[in-house]
Amino acid sequence: MASTKVVNLPNGGFSFENCQRNNFMSNQGFPAPKAVKTGTTIAGFIFKDGVILGADTRATEGNIVADKNCFKLHYMAPNIYCAGAGTAADLEMTTLQMSSQLELHRLNTGRQVKVATANRLLKQMLFRYQGHIGAALVLGGIDSSGPHVCCIYPHGSTDTLPFVAMGSGSLAAMAFLESGWKPNMELSEAKVLMRNAICGGIFNDLMSGSHVDLCVITREKAEMIRPFEVANVKGERQGSYRYPRGCTATLSTRVIPIEIESTVVRPVGEESMDTA
Amino acid sequence: MSILSYNGGCVLAMKGKGCVAIASDRRFGVQTSTLAMDFQRIFEMGPHLYIGLPGLATDTLTVHERLRFRLNLYELRESRKIKPQTFSAMVSNLLYERRFGPYFVEPVIAGLDPVTWEPFISAMDLIGCPNMPEDFVVAGTCAEQLFGMCEALWEPNLEPDDLFETISQALMNAFDRDAISGWGGVVHIIEKDKVTTRTLKTRMD
């Protein structure tokens, strides 16, 4: 009885309190709905100066396009980016969590994070959840031992290779990569090959679509090019379907005025460092 | 039959010029029976921040209460009104915590930034994947019809009065093609200096 008076602050981590109820509902004939997946074509490969990652921008919910311009290239560290395919919420949360872990690691060790570290952290986490976290990732970055690209599967296995593709459009992308990739490509060639690989997925895979996003990671910087190519332009509407004002019948109207409190702008001047 | 269509209901939000609009239907039913025509799915979380929670009605109420708790703690700790982007992250976190036993709601958030007055809309799936487009967001049992109506009717930079007409017509025509949504509609137009709430006269079948 005391528990009804004690307030439970959220603890962090997963909570399984609804599982029993949800199982019961599922048994009664009300299955749980599908979450948003990123059908996706993602790819990554090594070129002369570093690593290039590419992704399409469609997110699907069953057969409906939920987001026509979603962002699948996630920041992990200043020198490491990650493209994600699978369940969108899992990707978002996993990559956010990992980038926090990597930042703490970087502060702890005082060194630039290695791609192998990110790889190891991700695979250990995904294996712990035995594939129930639906995150398939292409991790790419450049560190003191050179450029690396790895693909990480939802169950926790990884492959470190010169070029990889993941997602439902991976077969189309891999076809382009297998025929076009060669070692020590120039940046311009690499961008064209990546664009072709992702477009292969966009135009041939139903669950991938919209535009091509690229991320180029070199020793000096990581450049996010969004969009690299607007592969599918929205059609132009021929007519205006505006309704004249007042045509919608209303039963009641309530206007709640909001008073804006005065805004105070306080300029903060340059403060000299206190080295006492 | 999916659990999200047990009670029925739909919510949509649109961006306008210096304003946002959020609208929902008012039916509450159990599969094919209608029990109430004044069910509240859109909740005010701040003077310029509204959240719509279509889906299983019990989870609508529960998620609203839990969010209100977290939001109150936030505002007490920070002594300021929450930004819509931060609130969206808070909702996403609450839903993802229950990744393996989710709440059956698909939230839609609409608001104005309390400092810059920038319009903001966002929608999530039931496990908290955020989607923040530039035009409109839809959720509910007639989401597909709403997508169709919004794609046809929405244009950028609509004034508040025009935005009201657009969102109302999109909502009504979409839920008229869905058996388990409808029975009334409510629209909130959120502007910098006022919020206008209108209830719509709709078909009651």
UniProtKB/TrEMBL annotation, chain A:
UniProt record, GO biological process: proteolysis involved in protein catabolic process
Catalytic-site annotation from UniProt: T40 (nucleophile)
| Pfam family of the protein (one) | Proteasome
Keywords, A to Z?
Cytoplasm, Hydrolase, Nucleus, Protease, Proteasome, Threonine protease
InterPro entries per the UniProt record, alphabetical: Ntn_hydrolases_N, Pept_T1A_subB, Proteasome_bsu_C, Proteasome_bsu_CS, Proteasome_sua/b, Proteasome_suB-type
Q: Which CDD domains match?
A: proteasome_beta_type_7
Q: Which residues form the Proteasome beta subunit C-terminal domain?
A: 231-265
Q: Its quaternary structure?
A: The 26S proteasome consists of a 20S proteasome core and two 19S regulatory subunits. The 20S proteasome core is composed of 28 subunits that are arranged in four stacked rings, resulting in a barrel-shaped structure. The two end rings are each formed by seven alpha subunits, and the two central rings are each formed by seven beta subunits. The catalytic chamber with the active sites is on the inside of the barrel.
A GO term for molecular function: threonine-type endopeptidase activity
Tell me where in or outside the cell this protein is found: Cytoplasm; Nucleus
What top-level branch of life does the organism fall under? Eukaryota
Which reaction equation describes what this protein catalyses? Cleavage of peptide bonds with very broad specificity
Which family does the record claim for this protein?
Belongs to the peptidase T1B family.
Q: What GO CC terms are in its UniProt record?
A: cytoplasm; nucleus; proteasome core complex
> What name does UniProt use for this protein?
Proteasome subunit beta
Function comment: Component of the proteasome, a multicatalytic proteinase complex which is characterized by its ability to cleave peptides with Arg, Phe, Tyr, Leu, and Glu adjacent to the leaving group at neutral or slightly basic pH. The proteasome has an ATP-dependent proteolytic activity. Non-catalytic component of the proteasome, a multicatalytic proteinase complex which is characterized by its ability to cleave peptides with Arg, Phe, Tyr, Leu, and Glu adjacent to the leaving group at neutral or slightly basic pH. The proteasome has an ATP-dependent proteolytic activity.
From TrEMBL, chain B:
Q: How does it assemble?
A: The 26S proteasome consists of a 20S proteasome core and two 19S regulatory subunits. The 20S proteasome core is composed of 28 subunits that are arranged in four stacked rings, resulting in a barrel-shaped structure. The two end rings are each formed by seven alpha subunits, and the two central rings are each formed by seven beta subunits. The catalytic chamber with the active sites is on the inside of the barrel. Component of the proteasome complex.
Q: Name one GO cellular component term.
A: nucleus
> InterPro entries attached here?
Ntn_hydrolases_N (IPR029055), Proteasome_beta_3 (IPR033811), Proteasome_bsu_CS (IPR016050), Proteasome_sua/b (IPR001353), Proteasome_suB-type (IPR023333)
- What Pfam family is a match for this entry? Proteasome
Cross-referenced PANTHER family, in alphabetical order? METALLOPROTEASE TLDD, PROTEASOME SUBUNIT BETA TYPE-3
The record's listing under CDD domains reads: proteasome_beta_type_3 (cd03759)
Protein purpose: Non-catalytic component of the proteasome, a multicatalytic proteinase complex which is characterized by its ability to cleave peptides with Arg, Phe, Tyr, Leu, and Glu adjacent to the leaving group at neutral or slightly basic pH. The proteasome has an ATP-dependent proteolytic activity.
The protein, known as: Proteasome subunit beta
The UniProt family comment states: Belongs to the peptidase T1B family.
The organism's place on the tree of life at top rank: Eukaryota
Q: Name one GO biological process term.
A: proteasome-mediated ubiquitin-dependent protein catabolic process
The answer to keyword Cytoplasm applying to this record is yes
Q: Where in the cell is it found?
A: Cytoplasm; Nucleus
- Keyword set for this entry? Cytoplasm, Nucleus, Proteasome
